[in-house]
């Protein structure tokens, strides 16, 4: 299993970086749209759709909704100054606070939504749609001045999340004693959380020092810490929904890694939260 994970990672990471820096805005939007459609297809299983056909239609509906939102905007104008995008990012901030409460009070909180397919679908929409617009808003950041500025920001968030995930895994294996959320994800520990945050802090310092990120250090620190914590919440939230659905992986699309949602669960929280803080709260535009 580890061999397949490493091989897949070595293939996917260069592809992701190439997509960030080489694709034009429309191409990047279409690739992200495809990823969101796959995520919606996988979410259908967690929402209670056993039928493959129903899940396909859910993915099509998600793609149609995002395409419709894109067509309602000026051509390639995906900045936070647009009402649809700023609203999606503020909604994301509220949704992940709600998700935090659901995780903290699980399994009691599951009584509110376990038997409601509609609510589980709404949770999926609140996870996937803001993630898409967070990706677009960050990629489009300062695009007229520097076409690669937004790509650097997205790469930064991804490294932050990957650092938190990898650091949590290593420190959890070496020092993990105290369970973080045993009823949601028994493998996660407080020691892993601290180790993941420490790893993210080191990456943040290195990236902020050598990459072209024009931002006040304190603002970067606040946005980074909150985004890293949000990434852990995103992981725990998907684990909670999978546990209720009785599944281990969202799908088996990626060898050794499970499904698309299993790879982007942390990013679905970190990206829109980081974008909201950076572009709307601190107004770094």
From TrEMBL:
- What topology in the membrane does the UniProt record assign? Multi-pass membrane protein
Instruction: Please give the pathway this protein is involved in.
Output: Lipid metabolism; Phospholipid metabolism; CDP-diacylglycerol biosynthesis; CDP-diacylglycerol from sn-glycerol 3-phosphate: step 3/3
Which residue spans traverse the membrane? 28-44, 56-76, 88-106, 118-138, 150-171, 214-233
Q: What is its main location?
A: membrane
| Catalytic function, reaction form | a 1,2-diacyl-sn-glycero-3-phosphate + CTP + H(+) = a CDP-1,2-diacyl-sn-glycerol + diphosphate
Which EC class is the enzyme in? Answer: transferase
* Gene Ontology terms, MF aspect: phosphatidate cytidylyltransferase activity
Q: Which GO terms describe its biological process?
A: CDP-diacylglycerol biosynthetic process
Subcellular location(s): the record lists: Cell membrane
Q: List the keywords (alphabetical).
A: Cell membrane, Lipid biosynthesis, Lipid metabolism, Membrane, Nucleotidyltransferase, Phospholipid biosynthesis, Phospholipid metabolism, Transferase, Transmembrane, Transmembrane helix
UniProt cross-references to Pfam families, sorted A to Z? CTP_transf_1 (PF01148)
Q: Which PROSITE patterns match?
A: CDS (PS01315)
| InterPro entries with a match to the protein in the record | PC_trans
Presence of keyword Transcription regulation: no
Any one Gene Ontology cellular component term annotated for this protein: plasma membrane
EC number(s) stated in the UniProt entry for this protein: 2.7.7.41
Which NCBIfam families does the annotation name? PRK11624.1 (NF008635)
Q: Which family does it belong to?
A: Belongs to the CDS family.
The protein's name:
Phosphatidate cytidylyltransferase
Please report the organism this UniProt entry assigns to the protein.
Answer: Affinibrenneria salicis
**This protein's encoding gene:** cdsA
């Amino acid at each position: 299993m580890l061999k397949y994970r490493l091989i897949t990672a070595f293939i996917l990471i260069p592809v992701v970086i190439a997509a960030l820096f080489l694709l034009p805005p429309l191409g990047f939007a279409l690739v992200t749209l495809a990823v969101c459609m796959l995520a919606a297809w996988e979410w259908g299983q967690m929402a209670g759709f056993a039928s493959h056909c129903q899940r396909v239609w859910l993915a099509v509906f998600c793609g149609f909704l995002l395409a419709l939102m894109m067509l309602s905007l000026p051509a390639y104008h995906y900045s936070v100054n647009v009402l649809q995008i700023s609203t999606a990012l503020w909604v994301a901030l509220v949704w992940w606070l709600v998700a935090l409460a659901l995780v903290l009070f699980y399994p009691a909180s599951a009584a509110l939504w376990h038997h409601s397919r509609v609510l589980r679908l709404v949770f999926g929409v609140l996870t996937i749609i803001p993630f898409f617009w967070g990706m677009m808003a960050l990629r489009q950041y300062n695009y007229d001045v520097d076409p690669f500025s937004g790509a650097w920001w997205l790469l930064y968030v991804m490294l932050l999340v990957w650092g938190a995930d990898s650091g949590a895994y290593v420190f959890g294996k070496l020092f993990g004693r105290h369970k973080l959320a045993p009823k949601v994800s028994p493998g996660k520990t407080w020691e892993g959380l601290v180790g993941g945050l420490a790893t993210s802090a080191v990456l943040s310092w290195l990236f902020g020092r050598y990459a072209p990120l024009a931002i006040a250090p304190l603002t970067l620190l606040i946005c980074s810490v909150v985004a890293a914590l949000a990434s852990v919440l995103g992981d725990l939230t998907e684990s909670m929904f999978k546990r209720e659905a009785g599944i281990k992986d969202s799908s088996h699309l990626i060898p050794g890694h499970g499904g698309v949602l299993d790879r982007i669960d942390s990013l679905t929280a970190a990206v829109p939260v980081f974008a909201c803080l950076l572009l709307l709260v601190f107004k770094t535009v």
